[in-house]
Structures are given as structure tokens and as C-alpha cells.
Design brief:
The complex is a heterodimer of chains A (428) and B (251). Chain A has 428 residues and is of the alpha/beta class. Chain A contains nine helices and 20 strands. In chain A, the strands form two sheets. A ten-stranded mixed beta sheet of chain A has the order 2-1-6-8-10-12-14-16-18-20, with helices on one face. A ten-stranded mixed beta sheet of chain A has the order 3-4-5-7-9-11-13-15-17-19. At the A-B interface, α7 and α8 of A face α2, β7 and α3 of B. Chain B: This is Fe-S cluster assembly ATP-binding protein.
């Protein structure tokens, strides 16, 4: 059967019985448009070039595979942070568990409320950056999210937002299939920190669209929970203006299937955009994929991609990262590093770093490595009395340090580092 | 303190014998120096004693205060009181020097069944000792040995030695890559640690380090054995006449 037919059959199978959430006319149009784009692109298959290293079948299947609910039995992440907490249980907003949606310098609403309003700023953002992000590479699962998303929040930062906004994604139902879509609009000179953590559901699709206006600052720290069986696909689409700053860090621990896509576009001069991630995976069924696409379309932009993966017992890590420097985007400084620490011979890391440059006065560098623990450093530590397992863990943490250093707030970085230390210690 | 008898060692991966029946006894509280030409096996001896992979002991024994060293893991040897100051201290990006020191100190205390040092006590001690070695706060914060100059790396080794207070210190060509001032600083650090209960084995090519760290006994090593043992005057003889005379005399 031809690929096109296979694709359209698979896509229709996924869409059987699907009804789009209802809202104001503009939002209904945005969803209908997204659905039409899903049909036109077709859902991804493992034969798509962009899915060469990650089989999307569990993400596209009509029915979500079950995932056991995992109780980590520890204090939830970011619990000690003075923040505005917004809780979703299996993808549904939990009013009782959430703080009131008000804060200094910020407007927050549930997605459904924003989508029901006839006039709302969300119209200029919902599905808009996602649509832009469909070229030059198609991301049908993001369009599917735009069409189907049932819940989420829309955040508009108008000043320096005093407290981080913290989205907590709880997973309590082993068959849940959640689709969340969040919008963040950072107005000129405004600053906001967004924290996200938790597995969200048995299968989770998350889409985040972020517009950072000139001089704005967006800081994002995310952790994807410790559930072993969850399947997750996330998309982050961001557009950043002049002298603005975008920083996003993701920690992934466990999970059988994770695909995190980040699509960034620098449209104003002197902007910076950093995307970083750490993943730790143990076992044959662990598969983690970071796919990043950064476009420089302005002068003097700085972008960094820093990804570190620690893999053992047959775990698989994937990195597809691209820097596209458009004509005229002079003085671009692009940096990309993806590294894996393979703790045994069964783990594997697949990397596809790409640079595409149309300006002649830029500095772009990229590197990708796979390696084992440095035996010389291990001996040095042991010769000082550090037991072998502790020494290995210390070196593993040191391998991840460059990515953790991308987190601007040291106390958040320290908290994630502690969790990683715990993960390693449980496996010693 | 340290008693080595008939030690024979080959490389694990190839058929190359490096130590060929080495005998050496270092008494408690004494400073012994080992000198010898390149390739005589000096560094191998330090690695084998501290437990580095890649060597195979084919015969002989090495005991620290009566305990069989060769049967222990590197960390057990450290906890038993052995310390090797590396010729080439290893850079460890991502691990802060202070974290490294504290992890090491507490790991050894734990292995010996002692209480771990509190953060406050540790800090106080490390600051005092770092000051003596002219190691500033910045060096303590930076990742282990990363971006350190040759002299800074060696001073950092001595700081570790001071914090771990081992019984038996092996210094592997600690003078290499040091200018005169740096050597003096390192030697002062070592001399400050000399005590009745602590022994040193100083491995070096040159006599000049021994001007600063005065040895009780000097050994000449060649082709995997100790070929001559004497007092400090032996080091001067090497300095004046080179190794060839001594080697000719003993062969």
C-alpha cells in the first residue's frame, strides 16, 4: 500500500469519534483549521524521516496504552518554592487543589474560558506559532494537540511576575489520555517563570506556545515525572523578540516513550534562546527523544542547545537538533551540544546535529559525543577514598552539570540535581 | 609502615614486566626518596600500591602496617591510610573542589567507622589549610583541577593530603612542572605534615626537591628493582654524576 494511503488510514483511525471542543467562533475556526492540517499532513509513521529514530505508533494509536500509576513516595518537586500552583489531574484542571488564578503582574485563565471569549488575546497565539512551526518540518502531533486540547492555561505576563507559575500534572488513572495546551504571552519588558512537573497521564500530549515580546524574559523549568510506563509527546513553540530572553530546561526521568520537540524562532535583534535537557533512562523500554529546531532571523542572536543523556541497560536516547541561520542574521552565535553517557554496552544514543547557515558572519558550533565513565577520573576519586559507586555517581552528576547550569535559578537547579542523585543512588 | 617484598608486576594487556622483584621498607615517621632514570618503574610502583587498573602482580607482597594492600580496592587502601599525590592530577569538570574534598574526607571517616565532619567544621579546617598553601576561595569553588596551573594542581594535591591526613604518603614526581617558588610552597606543605606517625615515599628524578623535603633514606631504582640504598648523600651523588656511575657500579 502506498505510504499516503497508509498514513491517511492511520490518521482517520485516530480521529474516529473525535469531537472538537466548542468555544467562540475564532477558537472553533482555529481547531477546525488544525484538524484539517492534521488530515492534510497525516500523522507520523516510523517511515517519516523526522521519526527515523523514534517510533511514533504509541503516540498516534487510537487508544492510549495503559500506564500504571506510580507513587514516588517523596515530596513533590518544587513543593518548597513560593509559587502559584495550578493542578491538573489526568489532564483536567482541579479547582480545589489549585491556587486562585491571580497574581501580581500576570493574568491567568483556564484555556476553555479564554477560548469561549469572543475577543481575547489568545486568538493571536493559539495554534498560530504551532502553524508557523510546521515549516520546514511538519509536526502533525502538534496540530492534533491544537485541534483536540481540552484544558490548559493561558498566561499573560504584563510585568515582573513575582512568583513562578507552577503547573502540576498528576496521573491517577491508568488509562488516561490527556491533551493540554498552554499559552504564555510575555509583554514588553515583562518576566515570568513557568514550572511544570508530573507525568500528566498514561499518555500525554502537551503543547506550549510562548511569545516573548521585546525585552521580555521567559524562564521555563520542567520535569516529566517518574512514572515508568507513561508515553509523552510535547511541543514547545516560541517566538522571541529583540533583547529578550528565553530559557527552557527539561528533566526526564523514566517513561517508556518521550518525545520533546522545541521550535524556537528569534525574530528580534540581540535576543537569547537557550534550550537544555537532562534525561536519565534505565532499561530496554526506555526511549527518549529531544528534537530541537532553532531559527535565527535577526542580528546578534545567541542560541544554545545543551542536552545530556545518561543511559543504561538498553535504554535509547535520541537527539535531533538544528540551527537555521537565515540570510541577514549576522553575528549569530549558535551553540549546540548533545552528549550521552552510556553506562553499559547495551545502551544506545542516536544523534543528528544539523546546521544550515545563510549568513556569512556567524559563529556556530556543534558537537555530539557518546562515552563511558572516565576511568582515570574514577581511579582518582577512588584513590581519595570515595567508594566506587559513589565515585561513579559523582562523575555521572558531573557529566550532567553543564545542562543543569543552564537553569538560571540555582535553587531550582539544586533541587533537580538532588532528584538525579536520588535516582542514581537507587540504582547503585 | 610500608613493607614491600619481592614485588613483581607486569602490564595486564601486554607481556611486559615492569617491577622485577622490588624490596622496600619504609619505617614509621621516616621520609624515603626513590630516584631513578626514566622507565625504571617508579610511577608503576606508585600506581600498583594505590590500586590502579591495568597492572598484574605476579609475585611478592606489599603491606601497610601489616595489612595486605594488594588485596584491597583503591578506596580501601585510602581509608587504611595510603595517599598518592599524582604526577598528573586529574581534571573533573562539574565537581566542585570543595564537594570533592568533603566527599573524600567523609567517605574515609565513614569507612573507618568515624563520624562525618559537619559542614561547619569541614569548612573551617579546609579554609585554614588552604590558606597555608596559598589556595584561594576561588580555587576551592572551581571544578576539581579544571583550569588550574601546574603549580595549582600540585598544591591542590597537598591540600587533599592535608585534609585526609594519611599515614603513608606517596608523592609521584610532585616536582614536575613546578618553578622554584611553587616547589618551595609544595615542599613547605609537605614538611608541615611530617610527623612521627606519618611516612613519606617521595618519587623524583631530581635532587632539587630533596633540598626542600629532606629525606632520611634515598633509594636508587633501575629496571624494576631498588639497586642501591643510602643516606641523603646518595641524592647529591646522582645530582653531580648522573645515574650512569651508580648503575655501572651495581651491575
Amino acid at each position: 500500500m502506498a505510504l499516503a494511503k497508509l498514513k491517511s488510514d492511520a490518521t482517520e483511525a485516530r480521529l474516529v469519534g473525535v469531537t472538537l471542543p466548542e468555544g467562540a467562533a475564532w477558537s472553533n475556526a482555529a481547531r477546525a483549521d488544525a484538524l484539517a492540517r492534521v488530515r492534510q499532513m497525516g500523522l507520523p509513521t516510523k517511515r517519516d524521516e523526522y521519526w527515523k529514530y523514534t517510533n511514533p505508533s504509541e503516540l498516534t494509536a487510537a487508544e492510549a496504552p495503559k500506564a500504571a500509576v506510580f507513587d514516588a513516595g517523596e515530596v513533590p518537586l518544587f513543593d518548597a518554592v513560593d509559587r502559584l500552583k495550578i493542578v491538573f489531574v489526568d489532564g483536567v484542571f482541579d479547582t480545589d487543589a489549585s491556587d486562585e488564578l491571580t497574581g501580581e503582574g500576570v493574568e491567568i485563565e483556564r484555556l476553555a474560558d479564554a477560548m469561549a471569549a469572543d475577543i481575547h488575546w489568545a486568538k493571536e497565539l493559539y495554534g498560530v506559532l504551532e502553524t508557523r512551526g510546521q515549516t520546514p518540518v511538519e509536526r502533525p502531533l502538534a496540530a492534533l494537540n491544537t485541534a483536540l486540547a481540552t484544558d490548559g492555561v493561558v498566561i499573560r505576563a504584563t510585568g515582573k511576575v513575582a512568583k513562578p507559575i507552577h503547573l502540576v500534572y498528576l496521573h491517577k488513572d491508568e488509562t488516561s489520555d490527556a491533551v493540554l495546551h498552554n499559552l504564555v504571552k510575555v509583554e514588553t519588558g515583562a518576566e515570568v517563570t513557568l514550572l511544570e512537573n508530573g507525568p500528566a497521564a498514561a499518555r500525554f500530549s502537551g503543547c506550549l506556545e510562548v511569545e516573548v515580546a521585546d525585552g521580555g524574559s521567559f524562564h521555563h523549568v520542567r520535569a516529566q515525572g517518574r512514572d515508568h510506563e507513561r508515553r509523552t509527546v510535547t511541543h514547545c513553540f516560541a517566538r522571541v523578540g529583540a533583547e529578550s530572553s528565553f530559557k527552557s530546561f527539561t528533566l526526564t526521568v523514566n517513561g517508556v516513550m518521550t518525545r520533546n520537540e522545541c521550535v524556537l524562532e528569534i525574530i528580534g535583534d540581540d535576543a537569547i534562546a537557550h534550550v537544555a535537557g537532562v534525561c536519565v533512562g534505565d532499561g530496554n523500554d526506555f526511549h527518549h527523544d529531544d528534537t530541537v529546531f532553532i531559527t535565527h532571523d535577526a542580528l546578534n542572536g545567541e542560541s544554545r542547545q545543551v542536552f545530556k543523556k545518561v543511559l543504561r541497560n538498553g535504554a535509547t536516547g535520541v537527539f535531533q537538533g538544528k540551527i537555521l541561520v537565515k540570510e541577514g542574521a549576522q553575528k549569530t552565535d549558535g551553540y549546540q551540544i548533545s552528549q550521552s553517557l552510556l553506562l553499559d554496552d547495551d545502551a544506545q544514543f542516536l544523534a543528528k546535529p544539523e546546521l544550515e547557515i545563510y549568513a556569512d558572519d556567524v559563529a556556530c558550533s556543534h558537537g555530539s559525543t557518546s562515552g563511558a565513565i572516565d576511568e582515570t577520573a574514577l581511579f582518582y576519586l577512588r584513590s581519595r577514598g570515595v567508594p566506587q559507586y559513589d565515585a561513579r555517581n559523582l562523575l555521572t552528576l558531573s557529566f550532567m552539570a553543564e545542562a543543569l547550569d543552564e537553569i538560571a535559578d540555582p535553587s531550582l537547579a539544586e533541587e533537580l540535581r538532588d532528584r538525579l542523585e536520588g535516582w542514581l543512588a537507587r540504582r547503585s | 609502615m610500608l613493607e614491600i617484598k619481592g614485588l613483581k608486576v607486569k602490564l595486564e594487556d601486554e607481556d611486559k614486566q615492569i617491577l622485577k622483584g622490588l624490596d622496600l621498607t619504609v619505617e614509621t615517621g621516616k621520609v624515603h626518596a626513590i630516584m631513578g632514570p626514566n622507565g625504571s618503574g617508579k610511577s608503576t610502583l606508585s600506581y600498583v600500591l594505590s590500586g590502579k587498573d591495568g597492572y598484574e602482580v605476579t609475585d611478592g607482597s606489599a603491606e601497610l602496617e601489616g595489612e595486605d594492600l594488594l588485596d584491597m580496592e583503591p578506596e580501601e587502601r585510602a581509608a587504611a591510610g595510603l595517599f598518592l599525590a599524582f604526577q598528573y592530577p586529574v581534571e573533573i569538570p562539574g565537581v566542585g573542589n570543595m564537594t570533592f574534598l568533603r566527599t573524600a574526607v567523609n567517605a574515609q571517616r565513614k569507612a573507618r567507622g568515624e563520624e562525618e565532619l559537619s559542614a561547619g567544621d569541614f569548612l573551617k579546617e579546609v579554609r585554614a589549610k588552604a590558606k597555608d598553601l596559598k589556595i584561594d576561595a576561588d580555587m576551592l569553588k572551581r571544578p576539581v583541577n579544571v583550569g588550574f596551573s601546574g603549580g595549582e594542581k600540585k598544591r591542590n594535591e597537598i591540600l587533599q593530603m592535608a585534609m585526609l591526613s594519611p599515614k603513608m604518603c606517596i608523592l609521584d614526581e610532585t616536582d614536575s612542572g613546578l618553578d622554584v617558588d611553587a616547589m618551595k610552597l609544595v615542599a613547605d606543605g609537605v614538611n608541615a605534615l611530617r610527623s612521627e606517625g606519618r611516612s613519606f615515599l617521595v618519587i623524583t628524578h631530581y635532587q632539587r626537591l630533596l633540598d626542600h623535603i629532606k629525606p632520611d633514606v634515598v633509594h636508587i631504582m633501575a629496571d624494576g628493582r631498588i639497586v642501591k640504598t643510602g643516606g641523603p648523600e646518595l641524592a647529591l651523588e646522582v645530582e653531580n654524576n648522573g645515574y650512569s656511575d651508580i648503575l655501572a657500579e651495581v651491575s
